[in-house]
Amino acid sequence: MTYEIACMACGASLYSGFDLKSPSDVLKSVDFKCRKCGVRLAPAKYLVEVRKLDGSFA
Ligand SMILES: [Zn+2]
To answer: Residue 7's pLDDT is what?
Structure first.
């Protein structure tokens, strides 16, 4: 199982890996900004999406 945390504005992947990280940790590592679209990612609002990727995209 792979987890992905993605920007909800543009869908860019901010983190993906086998460890489920907390969104605030991931956001901190990217300076609370999406590297692709530049939107400000507020931890309080959780403008991120945690996806479980099992290869089916169902
Ligand atoms: Zn984005």
So the answer is: 86
